[in-house]
Structures are given as C-alpha cells and as structure tokens.
Design goal:
By secondary structure, the protein is mainly β. The strands form 2 sheets. Strands 2, 4, 5, 6, 9, 10 and 11 form a 7-stranded mixed β-sheet that branches. 30% of the residues are buried.
Length: 120
C-alpha cells in the first residue's frame, strides 16, 4: 500500500500559476495521476504519468496549460499549472495504481486532496 500526500494548492488570480506536489510514501505503482472535483460535479481526470516510461496523458481541458512530471529520487509527482482559469477551481487529488490500457482510469490509492481556487 502507498500513501499519497498532496500539497501546493491555494488561491491564485486568473492567468496565474501553481505547482502541486504529490509525495508518495514509497515507489508508487505503475502510474500516478491527478484528478479534480469541483463543487456539485463529478471527479474528473486531469493528467497522468507512468512511473517507469514517463508516458503522459492530459485531459483536453488542460492540454497545453498543465504539465505533469516526476522526480524518481523523491517519489514525487508534480502538476505545473499555468494560465489558470476560474473553471480550474476544484479540489485536486493525487492517485496511484497499476497501469491499465486506458491511462485515465484511476487506480486504487488516493490522497486527501488540495484546494485550488482561481479567482480575481
């Protein structure tokens, strides 16, 4: 079992940037992803990276603005978020699990979430 701890959320103005971190208690399973849930909406996929091969996948809504990366030495995955919009406001969750044919499908392990608010 792996524990995931997110950090880096906060309040930012539209057009601003934030970097989220997901620290794993040990080497994560094959993939680590980010998901988000806005008030009144279902949790949705944001981005994912495979731990060994560095394959990545992004939701269309964040492609070109968000970048997912990993630091193997620190067992940490980052989500660099640029050009933030009010519709990016949500609780962002880190997720880990086995690699599946559809990388966007979440694994079994979740962090507690970190709030991102984009507002003027």
């Amino acid at each position: 079992q792996v524990q995931l701890v997110e950090s880096g959320g906060g309040l930012v103005r539209p057009g601003g940037s934030l970097t989220l971190s997901c620290a794993a208690s040990k080497i994560p399973f094959g993939r680590v992803g980010w998901y988000r849930q806005a008030p009144g909406k279902e949790r949705e996929f944001v981005a994912v990276i495979t731990w060994s091969g560095s394959s990545t996948l992004y939701a269309d809504s964040v492609k070109g603005r968000f970048t997912i990366s990993r630091d193997n030495a620190k067992n940490t995955v980052y989500l660099q978020m640029n050009s933030l919009k009010p519709e990016d406001t949500a609780v962002y969750y880190c997720n880990s699990g086995m690699i599946r044919p559809n990388l966007a499908v979440p694994g079994n392990y979740w962090g507690q979430g970190t709030q991102v608010t984009v507002s003027a």
